[in-house]
Design a protein that fits this description.
By secondary structure, the chain is α/β, with parallel strands linked by helices. It folds into 2 domains: 137 residues, 3-Layer(aba) Sandwich (Rossmann fold); 62 residues, Arc Repressor Mutant, subunit A. Helix content is 46%, strand content 12%. The chain contains 11 helices and 6 strands. Strand 4, helix 4 and strand 5 form a beta-alpha-beta unit. The radius of gyration is 20 Å and the shape is elongated.
Length: 238
C-alpha cells in the first residue's frame, strides 16, 4: 500500500455552511502476518481524520474476542489464516454483532476466495495491491453501506449471485470436494513449498500434511504433486 495523501479538509453542507467533520470510522485489523498488520496500521494512521484503528488480531480466535471487545465499525479481514480464515471469523462474529461490517483484504484474487467470503457476509473484497488512499476510501464506503471490490473482482460476484443468461457459475464439483484445510495445503504445495514448510506455515505436523495430500490426490484422482500443481493453477488456487 502507498499513496499517503491524507485529506485535511473541512466538511461543508449543501448550503455552503461549515459543519463539524464526521467522526473517523473505527477499524479492526485481522491478518496472521504481524509485519503486514504493523504496516497497515501505520498507513491508516496517516488518515486519522477518516479512519481510526481500534484493534488487531492474528488468528481467528483472537479476532473473534478482539472484535467483541472493540466493537469496530469495519473489520479489515484477511482471507487465508492457519486456523480457519476470514470466512470462519465471519461465521462466528456476524450472528453476535450484525452491525459490524467486514471488508476482505487479501493477496488472493481467486474467484473461489472472493465468493466464499462474500457468501459468508463480507461487504467487499480488495487486494493488498490497493493504495493506502483507496483502502481508506473503501473502508469509509463500506461503513456507509456500499459494496466495494477491486477491479474485475465484482464480476465474480455478479456471476455467482446474479441469474444472468450465459454467465458461468462459480463452482467446480471437484474443488468442492476438498475441505478448506486441504485447499490450504494444496495452494502451498502448488507454490512449491516442501511438506515441512507447509507444516510450519499451517501450524500442523508433517504427517498431517502428508495425510491431506493423500486425500487430495484421492479426491482429484491425480498421481503426483506436479499434476496437483497444474490442477490447482487451472483453478486459480495459486
Amino acid at each position: 500500500m502507498s499513496d499517503r495523501e491524507p485529506d485535511h479538509g473541512t466538511d461543508h453542507g449543501a448550503d455552503g455552511t461549515t459543519g463539524a467533520p464526521a467522526a473517523p470510522v473505527t477499524v479492526f485489523l485481522v491478518d496472521d502476518h504481524a509485519l503486514f498488520r504493523a504496516g497497515a496500521r501505520t498507513e491508516l494512521e496517516n488518515f486519522a481524520d477518516e479512519v481510526r484503528v481500534v484493534g488487531e488480531a492474528g488468528s481467528v480466535a483472537e479476532a473473534v474476542a478482539g472484535i467483541a471487545r472493540a466493537r469496530p465499525q469495519v473489520v479489515l479481514l484477511d482471507v487465508h489464516m492457519p486456523d480457519g480464515g476470514g470466512a470462519e471469523v465471519l461465521r462466528r462474529v456476524r450472528p453476535e454483532l450484525p452491525d459490524v461490517v467486514f471488508l476482505a483484504l487479501s493477496v488472493s484474487d481467486a474467484a473461489e476466495d472472493v465468493i466464499a467470503v462474500i457468501r459468508a457476509g463480507a461487504r467487499g473484497y480488495v487486494t493488498k495491491t490497493i493504495s493506502s488512499r483507496d483502502l481508506v476510501r473503501a473502508v469509509v464506503r463500506v461503513a456507509d453501506g456500499d459494496a466495494v471490490f477491486s477491479p474485475r473482482l465484482a464480476g465474480f460476484v455478479l456471476d455467482a449471485f446474479a441469474d444472468r443468461p450465459g454467465s458461468a457459475p462459480i463452482s467446480d464439483p471437484e474443488l468442492d470436494l476438498l475441505t478448506p484445510r486441504e485447499r490450504d495445503v494444496l495452494r502451498l504445495l502448488a507454490r512449491g513449498y516442501a511438506y515441512k514448510e507447509i507444516a510450519s506455515e499451517l501450524f500442523i505436523s508433517v504427517k498431517t500434511v502428508e495425510t491431506h495430500v493423500s486425500s487430495v490426490l484421492r479426491k482429484t484422482q491425480l498421481s503426483n504433486r506436479y499434476e496437483l500443481s497444474r490442477w490447482a493453477s487451472d483453478r486459480r488456487l495459486v
